[in-house]
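Lab notebook, bench 4. Still working through the backlog of constructs that have no structural model yet. Next entry is a single chain of 393 residues. Request: give me the structure tokens for it.
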Amino acid sequence: MVQDYYKNAITSSSILYFHKPDKDLKMDFTLDPNGKGVSGGRFGKVWLEDAEPTIKILDNGDVRFRYYAPEAQKVEVAGCGGYFSDEKVAMTKGEDGWWSCVISGIKPGFHNHKYWVDGNLMVNPDAPVGYGWFYPINVFDLPGEEDGFWMLKDVPHGDVRMEYYKSSATGRTKLAWVYTPAGYDESDKRYPVLYIQHGVGENEMGWVWQGHINMIADNLIAEGKMEEMIIVMNCGYAFVEGENPVFLPGDFSKELTEDCIPHIDAEYRTIADRKHRAMAGLSLGSSQAFFIANEHRDLFANLGVFSGGFPIVNTFGYWDYTDYYNDPEQVNKDFDVLFISGGDDEGYPERTAPVVEAEQKLGVNVIGYHHPGFHVWDVWRFSAREFMQRIFK
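Model written out:
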């Protein structure tokens, strides 16, 4: 899997890092006394060298990290906890100005990580960069045997489009990213729609750049495991001036149901009924999805909650659906798919599974799903894959 991963273009495609050639362009800007390059041209010298990955998974599973800082006195790297420890590891400086180290024991998964240069937290500009935790952060995947489902494959590919609409909740123009399956423009077919939300500190780009949901969808459709569908990714912040919400970031429910959904239904060939509409999200987005789908059961018949527990009662007092979820006949009538997932190492077995099992014993048709991992993107990719195979059947 590791070798397949490095041959795949998805490894060098992120928000601030794109597909690189096998050779790196080098330039020497040294000028002669007349102000010309030493070779008489604009640049002193231009040549190509073999490109060396700044993050490389070695054959034994260790990971080598590199950072270019020729003037630095000290460079360190660390994970963010979970499967990659947050303990700083000192890097060693080479004669070429590149610092490097090899770290053992990192488990497969998606890994945010950080670099410090002379004690200052920095982003490595030569490594993939994601957006999470409210700021840009370096990322990499250490793939496991099952991870091929989110990689680029030789199958028909859909498009990801940018769609603007006006928010009545905030008065601002908002941007949604919209996935349409391969062949959308050539057909007159109408499609069901999945609305899926990001987590706290992220935005509408997360499900494409870090979740690779477009690749997951392309591959599942090509395998005949998923219905063709439109996927809409929104920015879930709907703050208004002077508002300081504790948990939910503004009235995103109003924005989605009154502005975004009507816009998508008007601009795209959707099947505009509740049976063909799904709501899902991760972390904060899972709470938004749970609240919106339960408040608007006239709009949604499919719900996916990734890494958000089974929040029948909201901890901060925003909602209490106890009576509703004690009525399995009504819940099963309202929801075609009710899907709850989480990571084994973020508390799903201890906190979420008992609630799912209690609802199942009551007769609620709820699906529980868990995967090894913490509160990170590999858990959410697997969750999305499982959820998308079940909806709109």
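Notes after review: The longest strand covers residues 109-117. The domain at 2-145 is CATH 2.60.40.10 (Immunoglobulin-like). Flag for follow-up if needed.
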